[in-house]
Design a protein that fits this description.
By secondary structure, the protein is of the alpha/beta class. It has helices spanning 15-28, 50-58, 75-81, 89-100, 125-132, 146-159, 178-191, 208-214, 229-237; strands at 3-8, 33-37, 40-41, 62-65, 68-69, 105-113, 136-140, 164-172, 195-200. It contains nine helices and nine strands. The strands form two sheets. It has a seven-stranded parallel beta sheet, with helices on both faces. The radius of gyration is 17 Å and the shape is globular.
Length: 238
């Protein structure tokens, strides 16, 4: 799995912190890691973006960002309003493929959900994943509503014959409600893919050293971690 595309079921589901956790676990396993942010929106040129946040939490990753647009909008809209060139799927794929020649793992983080548009032609992160023939990791929320958005994302990946590597819950609450506890069993069912981890709420606020030490315990072995989906489900159902 030299390239792994990471998308969310929507915005604010914990995609960047999950990317950092995957990077930290891979680094702990002795792998070299690059993180590519296809397009950063809503961040000024002098502000730290998602790639910098991943590096702060995970450690020694190679950082790459293809474009930055000032307004917090979908990349295609933000590029148009800023009168800047958009980022096209072919450029994302080319950059990721180049990084893959120099690293054991390349994490490509999208913007928002799978079908958020990057250019005026409707190019998406899914198109980049197709060009790369790369598996896709879906980051989902824990609570009510997540089954619908996760299943829609999984259906689109299957329609495109893309490999859905699995689902990670981007923010697991300290006191999960009934819907969240039930979703542990239901997310693999609706997605047709394994649950590969659950990050505790507030993980991104941990000190970097604590984050790196804990990251493998939040992720399944396929992501270089030690997290056990069955044990987690039994515990939360109790």
């Amino acid at each position: 799995m030299p390239v792994l595309v990471i998308t969310g079921t929507g915005t604010e589901v914990g995609k960047t912190v999950t990317t950092a956790a995957v990077a930290a676990a891979a680094l702990a396993a002795g792998r070299t890691v690059a993180v590519l942010k296809a397009a950063q929106t809503g961040v000024r040129p002098d502000e730290a973006g998602d790639v910098e946040e991943v590096a702060r939490l995970a450690g020694a990753v190679t950082k790459a960002e293809l474009a930055r647009f000032p307004e917090p909008l979908a990349p295609a809209t933000a590029a148009r309003r800023a009168a800047l060139q958009p980022v096209r799927p072919a450029r994302i794929a080319e950059a990721a493929a180049k990084l893959a020649t120099e690293h054991d793992l390349v994490l490509v983080e999208g913007a928002g959900g799978l079908l958020v548009r990057f250019d005026e032609a409707g190019g998406t992160l899914a198109d980049a994943a197709e060009l790369l023939r790369a598996p896709v990791l879906v980051v989902a929320s824990a609570g009510l509503g997540t089954l619908n958005t996760t299943e829609l994302t999984a259906r689109e990946l299957r329609r495109r014959r893309l490999d859905l590597a699995g689902v990670v819950i981007g923010s697991w609450p300290d006191s999960p409600d009934l819907a969240s506890r039930c979703n542990v069993a239901d997310l693999p069912e609706v997605s047709g893919a394994p649950l590969l981890g659950a990050l505790p709420a507030g993980a991104g606020r941990l000190a970097a050293a604590d984050f790196r030490a804990a990251a493998p315990s939040w992720l399944a072995p396929r992501l270089d971690g030690t997290w056990d989906a069955e044990a987690f489900g039994v515990r939360e159902a109790a």
